[in-house]
Amino acid sequence: MTETIELSSVNDALAVAGPRLDPFGQRVAVAAYRTLAEGVSAGRVPIAERAGVEEATVDRLLDEWGAVFRDDAGDVVGFWGLAVAEMPHRLTVDGRELFAWCAWDPMFLARIIGPLDVATDDPVIGDTITYRLDGAGQIHDLSHPDSVVSFLRPDQEWDDQVMATFCHYVLHFTSTATAKQWTDEHAGTFVLGLDEAVELARRHTDRCFGEALR
Fold it and tell me: Is 141 left (phi over 0), alpha (psi -120 to 50) or beta?
């Protein structure tokens, strides 16, 4: 049966599972996002320059943080919801093709990397949902006005397994009907309206990245 849950409870669970960064770490994280958003793997040098820190510091933090994916050269190819490798949730940022790990990620990524276009598929009926997010994370030009997202309250800290344990359960649906069909078959999942998802994204970015977003 689909779970009903308060938004504040979801936010509290995200606060426990998600990154806990001091202002210094916030700068490096935002720099990693914005460098990766240029559409290619993000090297330690441009991240360090953008964050105003030493390269060795970037290396240390990236090694310490979970759910950071790097190539053989040590460059970042996937970082906390954003990737340059192909994934189901497609993003276009200033004409560059990027990808999100889950259907909710674009809603907070826009507040970090700027306006973006999203295309993702309803997993039940296969229809493609498209929309645009402005830099404040607000949704525009939504192809399916009744669309919603599924969500899974995280019950552990995010690590390198976050895609399997969390992201695969956070999807976009054309309507509550298809969402309920899917969530009824996946224990622990529930449906969030897009207004709720946008508000959750706002709380998440404000909490995790604070002054570094300004």
Answer: left
